[in-house]
Amino acid sequence: MNIISDIIVQQSNINEAIHQLFDAVDAISVQGYDEQRCVVYWNMGSEALYGYSESDALGKRLEDLIIPKPMQAFVIAAHADWVSKGVVIPAAELTLRHKNGLDVQVFSSHVMFTNQFNKKEMYCIDINLAEVKRAQDEAVFKHNMLSAVLEATPDAFFLMKEDGTVVEHYENNSKESYVFSSEFIGDNICSLLPNTVTHKLLACIQKAVKSGRVIHFEYDLDSPDGKKYFEARVSRLVSHHKVVIIVRDITEQHQSAELIRQHAYFDMLTLLPNRFLSLDRLSALLSEAEKNNVQAAILFLDLDDFKKVNDSLGHEVGDKLLIESAKRLHQSIDTPDMIGRLGGDEFMVLLSGLDSVQKSSTCAKKLLDVFREPFLIDDRTFILTVSIGIAVYPDNGLCVSEVLRSADAAMYEAKSLGRNTYSFFTKKMHLAMLRRFDIEEQMQTALENNEFEVFYQPKFNAHSHQVIGAEALLRWHNPVLGNVTPDEFIPIAEHTGLIVPIGQFVITQALAFLTCWEEVHACSYAMAVNVSPRQFRDVELINFIKAALKKSKVPPEKLEFEITEGVLMIGQSYIDDALSDIHDIGINLAMDDFGTGYSSLSYLRQYAFDVLKIDRSFINGITENTEDVDLVKATIAMAHSLGLTVVAEGVETKDQLTLLDELNCDLVQGYYFSKALRGDDLLEWPFK
Ligand code: C2E
Ligand code: CA
Ligand code: CA
Q: 30 C-alpha vs ligand 1 centroid, how far in Å?
């Protein structure tokens, strides 16, 4: 406006040049009025601002054109005062009126000339304020909005120079930041934060300024109530040489993410890496070893007889033993992140580097020592040893599953060596493992392909030599593997659980054969069937037996189940329940392989056994070895005192048979009379 006032020089005559000047300016409205306030000049800018064309306006009065009603009297008076008394109308912001009746915001300046006829002419120079007003309103709105946003946000807000000097800071009161409690506008942020954080911050400011993108980073600070985590987002303020930084407290997210991570990767009982993370680390170890062309080793640890402890003393004690075991591992291994819990009572330790093999035996010895210390749990002392299997990469496997399997096999070897020791994976184990896989694989379809057949080994009265019944013994002929002995495939079937359907098959076959045999010979016989521990875990076992007896119409007392002591040693209540159910049905129970295991008399008393079978390893030596005779003699006497029938198995010679008869053994079974025979062959036995 000042420029315009300067341009318009007070003079007595208005020359055409000035009119021409205004004619060309259409951004500014210039109107000229005579002493009666009639329009004498109206430029393009006036038409644009008020809507009246020059021809509309010329000759019309000021107040009739653009002055709103309430202002008209005032304007007329002010104009009159200026014309007659020289009272200048000052420049002002006014709200005038458009041709269409709407308000027009203007900044209006006025000058008064005296023309060549000595008449006064007033010129009004009006600038449209609509844009300015809008911009002002918007600025106010934006300011209010920013305040509201900052008020509502939990984040802290900083405006900084690019060197980190704080220009403005806003932080919601409800969310107190202990770091920025004092007034620090004008300070450099670097003097307020630890070095590690300021390095990151300045680097991010540089990056944000350079790239024009929002750059964010996380940092943590120690606070009186523990570590706090923050996320800072840095954004440059284009062409102001400043940056805006929003800082958010992400401690809670951090904590929950950490918790999730803990649950996903760590075992909550021992706090060791869980199976998932352990195998991940093993995988990383193998890749590293491959890259560097070095060896790596895994020690696979399994606590000895842990299941027994857990079952007999309860899970609480079991848990404490596991925690203590993990602690001992931690204390004896220098690289704690190389320890893991693979599940149950299985742990692993990973070793890396050129001398892995040597290190692993040193490490295994150390671990065995550490576990030899008795465990003190709830004022009770426990001995809990460990068996360790060691597998080495790349010799014993190239991938995680291979290496792990080898270590597992080596661990089983350590167990079979009497536990509380360690074993390296060997070639022999490798072959055994391959054989095991073959058997497992072939066995999957063996039942449906009718590859199993039940053979029967007759049993005799030791004195009269009369057949009294038979023991059902399973045979497997597989087209790929040929004949596989039960000693080999039964343990595998037990392990995979296939023993359950296979065992049902044996019972069904044995009962069917018994019926047939009795019919053909018109005799009464008994049938003994071997039952594995794993079969007792089958909740359907009892129902199955009842149904099988019903279907075959065999009276239960003609059926006998042979179980080994191993079954009883598992010490689980489901076994006790199944045994008493079997006894209640009326089926006889025989303790098999007596003399080989713990041979605990207490089991014989505790459970309702009817029969005791002396293991063939003792029968073998009775005619040569007096110790064996004494043992067998004592066993028979003891069994008889408990009311049990005694069976001697593995009788191969006439001398053995005679001696057993002299020792009062009730029944015998063995190659001296017959091997296990095909059902059809037994029907024709004794061969004429
Ligand atoms: P076991 O119950 O001790 O069975 C007796 C084993 O001794 C049988 O071996 C039998 O053939 C063998 N035998 C019999 N008489 C003589 C003899 O005079 N001299 C010698 N040296 N051996 C003799 P087999 O049939 O190889 O069975 C081995 C083991 O497999 C059995 O030992 C039993 O524990 C298991 N088994 C066999 N069939 C089944 C079954 O259907 N179910 C279950 N769960 N286990 C079975
Ligand atoms: Ca048997
Ligand atoms: Ca036996």
A: 123
User: Long-range contacts for 550-557 (Cβ within 8 Å, ≥24 apart)?
Assistant: 551/511, 552/508, 552/511, 552/512, 552/514, 552/515, 553/515, 554/511, 554/514, 554/515, 554/527, 555/586, 556/585, 556/586, 556/587, 557/586, 557/587, 557/588
Ligand 1: residue whose CA is nearest its atom 2: 530
Give 164-205 pLDDT, tens digit per residue: 898 888 877 544 554 554 567 788 888 888 888 888 889 999
The tokens describing 438, both together, are: 């073959």
Identify the pLDDT of residue 3: 41
Strand 526-530 to strand 559-563: parallel, antiparallel, or no bridges (unpaired)? parallel
Which two structure tokens, joined as six digits, stand for 373? 């210390």
476 near 451, Cβ under 8 Å? yes
Q: What is the distance in A from the centroid of ligand 3 to the CA of 571?
A: 21
Contacts of residue 166, Cβ cutoff 8 Å, sequence gap at least 6: 158, 159, 160, 184, 185, 186, 187, 188, 189
**Which residues, in sequence order, are CB contacts of 479 under 8 Å at separation 6+?**
451
- Ligand 1 atom with minimal separation from the 652 CA: 18
Which of 447, 473, 489, 536 gets mutated to test ligand 1 (max ligand atoms within 8 A of its CB)? 473
Q: Do the Cβ atoms of 527 and 558 come closer than 8 Å? A: yes
Distance set, CA 207 to CA 188, 212, 215, 234, 642 (Å): 19, 8, 7, 9, 91
pLDDT band at 599 (very low <50, low <70, confident <90, very high): low
Tokens encoding 582: 């079997």
Distance 549 CA to ligand 3 centre (A): 24
Q: Is the CB of 491 under 6 A from ligand 1?
A: no
> What is the share, in percent, of the chain residues with pLDDT greater than 70?
95
Q: Ligand 1: which of 453, 459, 471, 530 to mutate, most ligand atoms within 8 Å of CB?
A: 530
Nearest CA to ligand 1 atom 45: 530
Token pair belonging to 390 = 């060691």
Question: Which atom of ligand 1 lies closest to the CA of 564?
Answer: 34
Q: Is the CB of 256 under 6 A from ligand 1?
A: no
Largest separation between any pair of C-alpha atoms in the chain: 167
The number of the ligand nearest the C-alpha atom of 490 reads 1
Helix (H, G, I), strand (E, B) or coil at 39: strand
Query: How far is ligand 1, taken at its centre, from the CA of residue 486, in Å?
Result: 7
Please name which of 242, 238, 240 lies closest in space to residue 212, comparing C-alpha atoms: 238
> What pairing do the DSSP bridges indicate for beta strands 467-478 and 452-461?
antiparallel
- Gap from CA of 558 to ligand 1 centroid (Å): 20
Asked if the model's pLDDT at residue 677 lies above 60, the reply is yes
Protein residue with least CA distance to atom 43, ligand 1: 530
Q: What is the pLDDT of residue 595?
A: 83
User: Strands of 215-223's sheet, edge to edge?
Assistant: 166-171, 156-161, 242-249, 226-237, 215-223
Domains of the chain: 2-137 (3.30.450.20), 156-257 (3.30.450.20), 269-425 (3.30.70.270), 439-684 (3.20.20.450)
Rounded mean pLDDT, 604-611: 87
pTM given for the model:
0.61
pLDDT (tens digit, 9 = 90+) per residue, 270-325? 999 999 999 999 999 999 999 999 999 999 999 998 988 887 888 999 999 999 99
